[in-house]
């Protein structure tokens, strides 16, 4: 369709009066095909999808979702509840989730718990009232009320970013505890004698607590007779500034530590930069490890040794499972362990 044709079409159809039948006439297809492209584009031929989408662009058609939802009993929305909107690492998972869901015609509604189980409960209750078709949750530990509400709703649910033997419905994630055990094993292999766990473990951050448990289990296994060392704050945000504060606390309480194992890359990055400013040689005087493999990890000097987790793929795989469920198809698996990878760089 040329620019002239588009202008002529816009003159003919006002944006408030365009119907699905109008789109069908412009696209040269049936109204049923337009409806199918809007609801399940994957089930249509690429040629039909392109013709319908071009007709929608040219007519400036706006779908009446309210009417569609009433007719189909589907809202075409998926709720994603994450701990923090500002955290880029969760944004990567949301990007993967949204990319796949959008292709299937679903929109994502985002709620955030701010690491509070009580706030998560309020968010879930509120958004359930909007009748979403499915839920995506970061974490596997929730209040009994959250578990009860979601099970009674009888809609697909995928939990992520952790591991459990008893998911609400389906699970795509990895074991935070196993990841830290592997980090401790690496520390032992590299000859570090006095590793210390350092982190901001906020009351509702179950994943950070799982990492702490992994450190304790790893020390018990790989450092027999060694008393575990921890520097844990419950009121610090996940920022580089907090990493500097935690570094100072670790140096004060455990001055002979040769390795600091941070619960997050942001904290580790802040500590590493503080070491540079204070003239502490890394890793010669003090080694540092993180968790998450944030983009900054490979840009630091020295690069940050860390645990890499499949942030984007978690969202993508969760979306694929949800779509299969929403199409009344049986997923290949109820739980999918994506694992993790220890990335060794210069800081340890």
Automatic annotation (TrEMBL):
Entry GO MF terms: DNA-binding transcription factor activity; transcription cis-regulatory region binding
Domain HTH lacI-type positions: 18-72
Gene3D superfamilies named among the record's database cross-references: 3.40.50.2300, lambda repressor-like DNA-binding domains (1.10.260.40)
Database matches in SMART domains: HTH_LACI
UniProtKB keywords: DNA-binding, Transcription, Transcription regulation
Cited InterPro entries: HTH_LacI, LacI/GalR-like_sensor, Lambda_DNA-bd_dom_sf, Peripla_BP_I
Domain of life: Bacteria
Xref: PANTHER family: LACI-RELATED TRANSCRIPTIONAL REPRESSOR, TRANSCRIPTIONAL REGULATOR
Name of the protein in question: LacI family DNA-binding transcriptional regulator
Organism: Variovorax guangxiensis
Taxonomic lineage from the root: Bacteria, Pseudomonadati, Pseudomonadota, Betaproteobacteria, Burkholderiales
């Amino acid at each position: 369709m040329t620019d002239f044709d588009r202008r002529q079409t816009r003159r003919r159809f006002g944006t408030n009066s365009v119907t699905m039948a109008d789109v069908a006439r412009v696209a040269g297809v049936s109204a049923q095909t337009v409806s199918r492209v809007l609801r399940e584009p994957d089930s249509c031929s690429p040629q039909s999808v392109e013709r319908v989408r071009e007709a929608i662009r040219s007519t400036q058609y706006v779908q009446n979702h309210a009417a569609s939802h009433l007719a189909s009993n589907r809202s075409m929305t998926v709720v994603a509840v994450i701990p923090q909107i500002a955290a880029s690492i969760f944004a990567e998972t949301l990007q993967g989730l949204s990319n796949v869901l959008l292709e299937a015609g679903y929109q994502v509604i985002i709620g955030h718990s701010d690491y509070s189980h009580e706030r998560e409960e309020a968010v879930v209750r509120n958004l359930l009232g909007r009748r979403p078709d499915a839920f995506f949750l970061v974490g596997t530990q929730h209040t009994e009320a959250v578990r009860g509400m979601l099970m009674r709703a009888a809609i697909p649910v995928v939990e992520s970013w952790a591991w459990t033997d008893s998911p609400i419905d389906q699970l795509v994630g990895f074991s935070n505890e196993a990841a830290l055990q592997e980090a401790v094993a690496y520390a032992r292999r590299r000859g570090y004698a006095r590793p210390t766990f350092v982190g901001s473990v906020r009351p509702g951050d179950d994943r950070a607590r799982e990492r702490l448990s992994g450190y304790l289990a790893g020390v018990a296994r790989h450092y027999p007779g060694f008393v575990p060392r921890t520097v844990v704050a419950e009121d610090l945000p996940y920022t580089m500034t907090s990493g500097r504060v935690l570094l100072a606390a670790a140096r004060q309480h455990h001055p002979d530590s040769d390795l600091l194992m941070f619960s997050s890359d942001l904290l580790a990055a802040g500590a590493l930069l503080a070491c540079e400013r204070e003239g502490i040689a890394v890793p010669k005087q003090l080694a540092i490890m993180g968790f998450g493999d944030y983009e900054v990890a490979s840009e630091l000097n020295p690069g940050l040794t860390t645990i890499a987790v499949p942030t984007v793929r978690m969202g993508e795989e969760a979306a694929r499972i949800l779509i299969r469920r929403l199409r009344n198809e049986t997923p290949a698996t109820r739980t999918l362990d994506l694992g993790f990878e220890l990335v060794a760089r210069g800081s340890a």
